[in-house]
Amino acid sequence: MASLADATPPFALGALDGRYRSAVAPLVDHLSEPALNRERVHVEVEWLIHLTSNHVVPGVRALTDDEQKALRKVVDDFGPDQVAEMGDIERVTQHDVKAVEYFLKRRLSEIAPAAEDKGLAELIHFCCTSEDVNNLSYALMVKGAVEQVWLPKAQALVEAVATMASDLRDVPLLAHTHGQPATPTTMGKELAVLAHRLQRQLRRIESAEYLGKLNGATGTYGAHLAAVPEADWPSISQSFVEGLGLTWNPLTTQIESHDWQAELYADVARFNRVLHNLCTDVWTYISMGYFAQVRGQGTVGSSTMPHKVNPIRFENAEANLEVSNALFDVLGSTLVTSRLQRDLTDSSMQRNIGTAFGHSLLALDNVSRGLAGLDAVPAAMAADLDANWEVLGEPVQSAMRALGARGVPGMDEPYERLKELTRGRRITGDDLRAFIAGLGLPDDVAARLSAMTPATYIGAAPELVDYLD
């Protein structure tokens, strides 16, 4: 039997890098192993520039503008060739961050080759533990992935749901509570509820903090003060971390505590769960005939039943949201714990961040494509409304209660009388109007209730859609 494991180029083990690669490829620039190494190079370069520009170490010259540009170009040009070179170095060092240091020392020797500048190389990774570089790199990676890839996709999806809500704000819909016919609403209002919930979660994610630290092996600046005791190392650290666009964490062990990651992943997971609810609701509306899957459907719905167009986009999204949340949940629960001043569980765990975001991004793609292929079917919604006149028992008994409270005679036991009329059986409009006529209601109230239909009993549902942001 041929070995698939030995194929060249290699086959992907996971679905994200195989079947679904095109949908999640933008995350590779942020959350892949090469992206981690690029951010490590970025952090090391900026730390060297920060140290020399601020004359932190006495007697060391500042890098020139051209040298700084050349170093930053190393980051900008970091691609497949550099990934391979760093891999070769790591095979010797058996240490990923040390490989970054040696990689940059090679580049610095080309950028500042003078003999008197050789000492500059000793300021690469100066007074840093690996976690000083890693925590900042991960913060930059996650920030970039969220702000440049995940959020724009999520925002576009929520906007599409809000647009659907607006377009369908006046389309009456028979509600179902506990799976049973209930007070009518509009399709627009129900979609607006989901859009509003998703918008709230996006606001939390948009305001996320991304923390970072640079304070040495146990968070004490021990090596820093031993090397340059006169420097204000906390201030130097703060200005450096904030210069990267991150929030400085002044109190840590060897690791940055990762609480911000747990907070962010909980918010993304909550967004995922609301989106999962949207998927199950829309799937149900499709099964009820309220939406038709007609646009852009060149797919085979069933291998044996030609009439079928299956709601696969929403089903695929459900599965991927569940995988994503399982990963986000374990990331959030694991990353906040570290034994004493350091253990390596976080190092292994953080390598799954890209997979967690990948499954969420794939779900966003599927829901977006699924919604784009739907057409509302108001006639189907109207037919269900017209078949369920018993839902008007609620407004009739509510009107009777209000009249009874005002002392109008004959309004006793309104709930019980409507229960006897409607529970467990279908009634027609004629049945309800005959019932209303026999109640002895004031003429204006009787006329108002008799004119009501299931399709017009929608309260303020259309106007509520306007509360969407």
TrEMBL record:
EC number, UniProt record: 4.3.2.2
Coiled coil: none
InterPro entries associated with the record: Fumarase/histidase_N, Fumarate_lyase_CS, Fumarate_lyase_fam, Fumarate_lyase_N, L-Aspartase-like, Pur_lyase, PurB_bact, PurB_C
Enzyme class: lyase
Keywords: Lyase, Purine biosynthesis
Domain Fumarate lyase N-terminal intervals: 18-317
Biological or metabolic pathway of the protein: Purine metabolism; AMP biosynthesis via de novo pathway; AMP from IMP: step 2/2; Purine metabolism; IMP biosynthesis via de novo pathway; 5-amino-1-(5-phospho-D-ribosyl)imidazole-4-carboxamide from 5-amino-1-(5-phospho-D-ribosyl)imidazole-4-carboxylate: step 2/2
A Pfam family it matches: Lyase_1
Residues of the Adenylosuccinate lyase PurB C-terminal domain: 338-458
Any Gene Ontology biological process: 'de novo' IMP biosynthetic process
GO molecular function, one term: (S)-2-(5-amino-1-(5-phospho-D-ribosyl)imidazole-4-carboxamido) succinate lyase (fumarate-forming) activity
Catalytic activity: (2S)-2-[5-amino-1-(5-phospho-beta-D-ribosyl)imidazole-4-carboxamido]succinate = 5-amino-1-(5-phospho-beta-D-ribosyl)imidazole-4-carboxamide + fumarate; N(6)-(1,2-dicarboxyethyl)-AMP = fumarate + AMP
Family per similarity comment: Belongs to the lyase 1 family. Adenylosuccinate lyase subfamily.
Function in brief: Catalyzes two reactions in de novo purine nucleotide biosynthesis. Catalyzes the breakdown of 5-aminoimidazole- (N-succinylocarboxamide) ribotide (SAICAR or 2-[5-amino-1-(5-phospho-beta-D-ribosyl)imidazole-4-carboxamido]succinate) to 5-aminoimidazole-4-carboxamide ribotide (AICAR or 5-amino-1-(5-phospho-beta-D-ribosyl)imidazole-4-carboxamide) and fumarate, and of adenylosuccinate (ADS or N(6)-(1,2-dicarboxyethyl)-AMP) to adenosine monophosphate (AMP) and fumarate.
Record's protein name: Adenylosuccinate lyase
Lineage: Bacteria, Bacillati, Actinomycetota, Actinomycetes, Micrococcales
